[in-house]
Amino acid sequence: xxxxxxxxxxxxxxxxxxxxxxxxxxxxxxxxxxxxxxxxxxxxxxxxxxxxxxxxxxxxxxxxxxxxxxxxxxxxxxxxxxxxxxxxxxxxxxxxxxxxxxxxxxxxxxxxxxxxxxxxxxxxxxxxxxxxxxxxxxxxxxxxxxxxxxxxxxxxxxxxxxxxxxxxxx
Length: 170
Prior knowledge:
Blueprint: H1 3-9, H2 13-40, H3 46-73, H4 85-88, H5 101-126, H6 131-169
Helix pairs in contact: 2-3, 2-5, 3-6, 5-6
């Protein structure tokens, strides 16, 4: 991105690059959380959910590509050391120490809700000022909203299965 384009795009490019580096770190953590959770998953609906979690992981990786490209376009340096991801991220990585499907989904749901806040913040910061970053943030935000809905639906299905199982045991 040229200097003039950067100068008219946002009021504080350094703040935006910091926000994007936070998002980048969170995308890498989300990618790994989805990927490893899918591999460890146990419980009902495992096969269906595993396949979707791997798709979500790939989408998070795609988001990381978009974000890193934008950081570079803005003249910034992306987070280059994985040891620094936790320092930049607001969204926590939750170790999937309990592989039960419901626990894995709850962890991923927390991550998605955090990501929704992050991309809404970036969209608000760039709206009307930096159209390229705004459009990227809205695109990723839409994906994160879809992920949240998927996870909520699976959790609803799991609760329904538990209710039906309890009824059958009575």
